[in-house]
Write a structure and sequence with these properties.
Helix content: 25-40%
Structural class: alpha+beta
Strand order of the largest sheet: 4-1-3-2-7
Largest sheet: 5 strands, antiparallel
Number of strands: 7
Number of helices: 10
Radius of gyration: 23 Å
Shape: globular
Strand content: 5-15%
Length: about 325
Amino acid sequence: MDADGWLTREDFDSREDWLRYRFNGGLDITEGDDRFSGISGSGYYATLLGAVLGHTRREYERAWLGRGQTDSVSVLQFQKAYRAVAFANCMGLMMNTAVDIAWSTAGVEGDLAVTARQRDLLDALRRWCDRNGLPAAWIWVLEQGPKLGLHSHILMHVPDEHVDKFRQYATVTLSRLVVKRLANTKASKTLLIAHRWGNQITPQWLRFKYMMKGLTADSQLPARDEFENAIKFSERVAVRPKPQGQVRVKRLGVSRALDHAACKSWAALNDFPSTQIRRDFEELYDDRYLRWFWDNQHQLRKPSVTDNGGYEPA
């Protein structure tokens, strides 16, 4: 019993009994616990309170402390996504397939629910790529809108000859994950998949810029000396920022095959073109990375791969 007369955890034989006591008494379980790490367990009250407060410290912070909450795509996130697409092109992979998911039309609402279903879907797509001998290459972004709520935009690589199989697999898998038939009417569609045939570089970069429209509007590229003025980052990358709502989970991501570790390992063995976004106004959205692949594919060197799919340091 504490100084105020309330029973403490030590007064109960089981954690479930203590949780029931706190719940029935309307007492805050997290009060006075700066290191609260969520509620785990399979009992009724553990399950109930875990759903409300989160099962881990990360879930609790996101749901109740606003951790991970963002209002826009940051400059660092933009650079991460740009590097991933450029790296894919250097590997000869055209990011030719756009996937849009309106989660609310399938009854999935709330940031944690959406991010969990998207994680499961992307994991399933990675396994599909593995079975078909394809690289799991994609970037994704979450946006919050007044009509659709939290929705996903994905840009990925799917070879032309696999498009029909991919479309069928993605549709069936998403329906299974949301445990519901997907909406597919003129007024409402849960899943949209658009594939561009052939090596068309312009649609890839147009889709990329569309996905980056939530870019923060006030970031700048600093002046290099006293004779220059700072310039807006959004103007440099030719993206017109448009607010895409508040997201309380991870807003943008790339597949493991295109992440920083993979890019660093490959770049250490191959003289890739720079993906750094500098002040000088060179074209960012051209086919230079694909052209590099066409010119160097015969001498492309591969880093060694670990058992878990990662890359050994170069």
